[in-house]
Amino acid sequence: MAKTSTTAPRAAPSGLHRLAQRFKIWRATRPRGQRIPAALWQAATDLARSHGVNPTAGALKLSYDDLQRRLQPGRAPRGGRPRSPVFVELPPVPLPPGGGERGTVELVQASGARLILRVPDASPTDLLPLVRLFLRHRA
Predict the structure, then answer these.
(1) How confident is the model over 62-78, as a mean pLDDT?
(2) What percent of the chain has pLDDT over 70?
(3) CB of 45 within 8 A of CB of 67?
(4) How many domains does the chain have?
(5) Phi, psi of 107, rounded to the nearest 5 degrees
(6) Residue 87, domain member (yes or no)
(7) Is residue 9 exposed (0-12), middle (13-18) or buried (19+ Cβ within 10 Å)?
């Protein structure tokens, strides 16, 4: 006896349908081996956030894993090497009249983690271990 489904397949939302058409046109006109443009990936991840990864990947004929990976915050797309930190040396800023706030050090990592040390009587050698610990930790 043949199995029959009692539920009709759901129609893709119009946003998914329109983006699927954009992918279809891009696939038909792209040079062989060209990567999916960032604008199409961005549109796909936007729809995946609202409609789910599996329905979006299926409608757009994308790899579920690739789409899922692009949705994870703070993760670079696959194939891209993480950029190494850049050191920038700044000239010392002259203190405003009255001396400003002595003994304040503020550090901010690219992730947004922030460390503010307000120790008026500390020397730089006293603060160095704390600064190193903060810079070693990845937020």
Answers:
(1) 78
(2) 71
(3) yes
(4) 2
(5) -120, 140
(6) no
(7) exposed
